[in-house]
Each structure stands twice: as C-alpha cells, then as structure tokens.
Amino acid sequence: MTRKIVAPARICALLLAACLCLALSACGTGAGQADYSILEGITIAFSGLPGGEFTVDAARLPHDFTQAEREALSVNSLGEERQRLAKGVLLETILAQHGASQGDYARAEATSGDGYAIAIPGEVLRTRDILIAFELDGEIIQPRLVVPGERAMYWVKNLRGIELIASADAPEVTREVSLSDLIAGLSDRAEDYKYGDADCKALPIALLLEAAGAERADFVTITAADGLVKNERWSTFAGQLLVFEGTPEAPLFTGPDLPEGMRVKNVESIQIGGVLIK
C-alpha cells in the first residue's frame, strides 16, 4: 500500500485555513460579542448645560465612551437592599466632554420613556458615581440610571432625558398652612378614589393649592414620614390627587396616570415657593 505523505508546511496551511474559517464563523454569528441591538433607535437628551442641549445615541454608548462597571446597592421603598452589578457609562464621563461636571449642579431631573420623572438632589450628584447602564446583572437592558446606595426611585428605567439644574436657592418659608385644616375645609369636595383594593377619599391637588393660596413655582418639594424628600415639577404635581382617607399610606400623593414610582405615601409636608403645607 502506498501512503500519501503530507508535508509539514501543507499541514500548517490546512490548520491555518481551518482556524480562519472558525474565526469568520464566530464573527458572523456574533460569538463573544454582546448584542446591543436593544439600544438601537434610542436617544438620551441632555439639557441645562452651558453649551446647550445635546443628545446621545444609546446604541453608541458601549462604543464611543469609556465603559465603567459598578457594584451598586439598590434600596426599595420598604428599605430592602439588593446588590446589583451594573455596566455602562458614567454620567460624569458624558458631561466632561461638554465641559461640565455633575457636582456643579443643584439637582438633575431624569425622565423615562413612559413619563416617569425624578429630581436627583445635589447631594447625590456630588457624592455618587451615577451610571447610565446598558447591562444589569449580566443582562443587556435599555438605558437605565443607576445610583449606587440610593433609593430605587432614582434608578430610572428606559432613560430618555437628563436635565441639569443650576439654581440651589430654596425659597424661604414665609407662611405655614395646616394640611389637616385644608382637608377638613374641602371635605365636601372630596372624590371617591380606588387605590388598589381600597375605597378611598381624595382631593385634587389643584384645590389644595388654591385653598392654601400657593402661587405657581417651578418645583414643589414633598416630604414624607420616612424622610423621603422629593421634588416634582409644578406641571406634574398640580394635576394629581391627595388621598387622605381609606389607606394607611394616607396622606398619599398619587393620580390615575401617575407611575407608581412617583407616588409619595405618608406625606408630611408640601412646599410651594414660600408656602409650607404641613
């Protein structure tokens, strides 16, 4: 029997060709590469900066910016803690490209694609590494704000915008109004309201503000019994309801179309300009 002998050079060439085919196959299927297609078509608007408004293409976040990874503690409304692993781009990294720093601002308002909005206090901006995440616990997600060590209400899902607000001056309180007196005086104008399975009584916020003599302000500050301090835009706040009866969470700031994360339970005070309702 005659054996065909393959030269070593020929063997090397065959092996190289095989490796090349495998590599091309891997590239064609995206093997070893993260699939960020979920980010396509999404833009995040940034406003309030000296250079004006700009937008970032979410699909470019993993490619155009230095990536960061953080172990982040999330705290829900019940005080329960959960450790998460987030990957994305630091807000500070994006702002730096436009000559700004998050610590320079009094607060930032983050908005979601479903209309959810939350004002992030200046103290948080100065002390936290805020991340615009596109991966969470190993799963690729739509852009999400991750604020390590802070309440989950700041972790805005489906992030669509961040407004930086420079003014830090809080209005001086010039008049205090009793919330319980306001509710008692308006009780005949209360509405029936279904909150979960509970039959409740509620008052339109606009009525409360009118009765308190509160004038329009850019932001309204709501303080809850658990220490939560939340800023809402007047346009959002004034159109909602205050549930005052029928649930242990009363007084409850809520509304039929208000996302759950924007509700405030056990309201202790509301400040609008110089008027404090408590």
Q: Which SSEs are present, and which pair or pack?
A:
Blueprint: H1 8-29, E1 43-47, E2 54-57, H2 61-64, E3 68-75, E4 81-90, H3 91-96, E5 107-112, E6 117-121, H4 122-127, E7 131-136, E8 139-146, E9 159-165, E10 175-177, H5 179-185, E11 191-195, E12 198-204, H6 205-212, E13 219-224, E14 229-233, H7 234-237, E15 241-245, E16 252-254, E17 267-272, E18 275-277
Parallel strand pairs: 1-9, 10-18
Antiparallel strand pairs: 1-2, 3-4, 4-7, 5-6, 5-9, 7-8, 11-12, 12-15, 13-14, 13-17, 15-16, 17-18
How would you describe what is shown here?
Helix content is 21%, strand content 37%. The protein has 7 helices and 18 strands. The strands form 4 sheets. It has a 5-stranded mixed sheet. The protein has a 5-stranded mixed sheet with strand order 10-18-17-13-14. The longest helix has 22 residues. It is globular and about 60 Å long.
